[in-house]
Amino acid sequence: MFRVMRRIRRKNRDHREDAGQTPETTPKTLSGALDKDIGAFRAALGESSDIIIKEFEFGFEKQVRGALLYVDGLTDRQLIDDGLLRPLMFDTTFVSGAGEGMSDIEAINRDIIAASDVKPKADFDEMMDDLLSGNTVLLVDGCPRGLSIGDRKFMMRSIEPPITESVVRGPREGFTESIRINTSMLRRKIKNPNLRLEGMKIGKQTHTDVAIAYIKGIVKPGLVEELKKRLERIDTDAIFESGYIEAYIEDAPRSIFSTVGNSERPDTIAAKLMEGRAAVFVDGTPFVLTVPLLFVENFITAEDYYLRPYFASYVRFLRFICYFISVMTPAIYVALTTFHQELIPTQLLFTMAAGLNGVPFPALLEAGLMVVAFDILREAGIRLPIAIGSAVSIVGALVIGQASVSAGLVGPFMVIIIATTAITNFVVSGLNESITILRYVFLIMGGLLGGFGIMMTLLAVLLHMITLRSFGTPFLSPFAPLTPKDLKDSFIRMPLWRMRTRPLSLRSWNIRRRKRTEPRPSGPAAGGMEGQGL
User: Fold this and answer.
1) pTM of the predicted model, to two decimals?
2) Residue 119: strand pairing partners
3) Which of 70, 356, 453, 522 could be disulfide-bonded to 136 (CB atoms 3.0-4.6 Å)?
């Protein structure tokens, strides 16, 4: 009974949703009658002030009627005037008998239109989609097909250095909000005919442009097919940012760890494609998604490969340490001061006890309040305007920390612990979400059960991470399962000439990256100072 009622309510809801859709109120194809086709567009678009419909006559004796439809602000007005209206209304008047062939849309496209991106189409929905995407639509009376002319031109942000992934050495360019500019930047990095870009539209109301990028012959077998399948299953009204796509295609939506990577650097995306991954470009956002994602990727930056391997390895190992400090330090401090005072050196214990003299709160509550205060200051610094955001976060931290110690609400050691946690938190910015959640979990368990609670929580987190997959690839690769050859680019970064194969955990079609050669000096440089007169 309840199942039947639910089915009836679902049908009624679907009927109400479909009632507002255009497919039932508009034709499937163009009719060829200009007035009827224009009326169909007017009925679908309503009285929108930015929709321009320019009717005109052309041909030898102005015996052919036509219409241009475009969205003001999304198209190139100069191209419309010089490349469309001028040839149609002026040039055709000098051709005797031109009216006989002016109803042939192919002839108009071939002989008159001065534009490169022109596609004849008869499907009404496709023409409507092109119109709202910034193309100009040409309709001719008596022709059941129209022309979709690509003349998009609208204001957009110029190419600037990425804000979230700044580097000292490397390209200083980041993706923008235009999907076509982003794909062109990728093409500029990878001049390979095997680079494929397959487009689709997602969102029943927004019709957002999405493109899948991969390199044929290198991409992991079956990855593109699985990615397409997940994207095609997305059934939603709107896609405004790549985060919407990520929520629908990730393997573990209930996990605190993301299994889909993102970046706004073209060199990073190009490098990931060269390893056998696939990327997802979304119109309207500079952040490009990559799959599959490994946990170790969060500690790797593009700059690691532009520096000397020794320093790059040291910095990468430092990131792992900072991640551990940011997550575990408050919990370890609370566990030591509450349950395991015998593990603290005697002199240090006396110093800590003197600093805690007069503090009215237990260590767990004291740490919890300070961590919450830090998160509030961080969020305020992010949301406030740039001119005052950094000043508020710095001054707020100094004032609150000093005032709390002076008032006896927290001890000086707790301020040091939280400050260290705050600094290390920004070293691995890609894991900021999971770091924040794990810090509270470990803090609570350390305050309630001490070291036993911390170890049990750590074991549970590791077991959870081992079970995670990203498009069939184990999340903890190359550590679990262990892949020794991939360890050359994990905790440390070996010289580029030593990394001869792509990551084996990705199971790319083409494993070999380069030949087994080592850089060897030749010529005068091989003999020291020979050839220089010394």
Assistant:
1) 0.83
2) 148
3) 70
